[in-house]
Amino acid sequence: AQTVTQSQPEMSVQEAETVTLSCTYDTSESDYYLFWYKQPPSRQMILVIRQEAYKQQNATENRFSVNFQKAAKSFSLKISDSQLGDAAMYFCAYRSDWGGSQGNLIFGKGTKLSVKP
Amino acid sequence: DVKVTQSSRYLVKRTGEKVFLECVQDMDHENMFWYRQDPGLGLRLIYFSYDVKMKEKGDIPEGYSVSREKKERFSLILESASTNQTSMYLCASSFSRRQGGTYEQYFGPGTRLTVT
């Protein structure tokens, strides 16, 4: 079974600085998707960034980028120029692309990011 | 924009009561999901549905049931609420494989259920 591990329960960053959140996963599959979700204190979970495993190029969305290392099964999220609004719980998630899969996401336990002004 | 709504943001129920949590999405998604979120445990899948009247158990289905009579609506039922079911409940939806798309799940705002 696939597992997702976020080894940093809490992280802190100074406003305007850069922070990297770690995520590792375990799978025997070769085709899959990886996601980072953000859950601000208001609780609505929103998608931050998505990476398809078959793509070698790391995904980027404005100030958010990932470092996807397929062989190492690592998927870290880098937030540049951190803003107060980035403070949230961040969840890493895995989705199999196997034909028999119905699309479940497997989540890590989350990293709580604080941003200091 | 995709919109996933949940019937209540906060709910307080007594032990033994039957509880209904409802979720509605407006994007014609075939897949719908119910998660439970607890501090330090992340999100755990309770049930999911990949079509009307179709359902499959997730990781923690005990004490819960679900109903999907219409494509846009997915209900979570606690037949007899217990204090250990006090939690945050999140609903999500996504396109299925046959619908294509990029497979990310869209979440509702959550329901904070307290069972006393």
Which secondary structure elements does this structure contain, and how are they paired or packed?
The complex is a heterodimer of chains A (117) and B (116).
Chain A: E1 3-5, E2 10-14, E3 19-21, E4 24-26, E5 32-39, E6 46-52, E7 60-61, E8 64-69, E9 74-79, E10 88-96, E11 105-107, E12 111-116
Parallel strand pairs in A: 2-12
Antiparallel strand pairs in A: 1-4, 3-9, 5-6, 5-10, 7-8, 8-9, 10-11, 10-12
Chain B: E1 4-6, E2 10-13, E3 19-25, E4 31-38, E5 42-51, E6 54-57, E7 65-70, E8 73-78, E9 87-94, E10 106-107, E11 111-115
Parallel strand pairs in B: 2-11
Antiparallel strand pairs in B: 1-3, 3-8, 4-5, 4-9, 5-6, 7-8, 9-10, 9-11
List keywords for this structure.
heterodimer, A: 117 residues, mainly beta, six-stranded mixed beta sheet, four-stranded antiparallel beta sheet, globular, B: 116 residues, seven-stranded mixed beta sheet, 11 strands, 54% strand
Description:
The complex is a heterodimer of chains A (117) and B (116). Chain A is mainly beta and 117 residues long. Chain A contains no helices and twelve strands. In chain A, strands 2, 5, 6, 10, 11 and 12 form a six-stranded mixed sheet that branches. In chain A, strand 5 (32-39) and strand 6 (46-52) form a beta hairpin. By secondary structure, chain B is mainly beta. In chain B, 0% of the residues lie in helices and 54% in strands. Chain B is built from no helices and eleven strands. In chain B, strands 2, 4, 5, 6, 9, 10 and 11 form a seven-stranded mixed sheet that branches. In chain B, strands 1-3-8-7 form a four-stranded antiparallel sheet, with no helix packed on it. In chain B, strand 7 and strand 8 form a beta hairpin. Chain B starts with a strand and ends with a strand. The interface between A and B is medium-sized, with 23 and 27 residues.
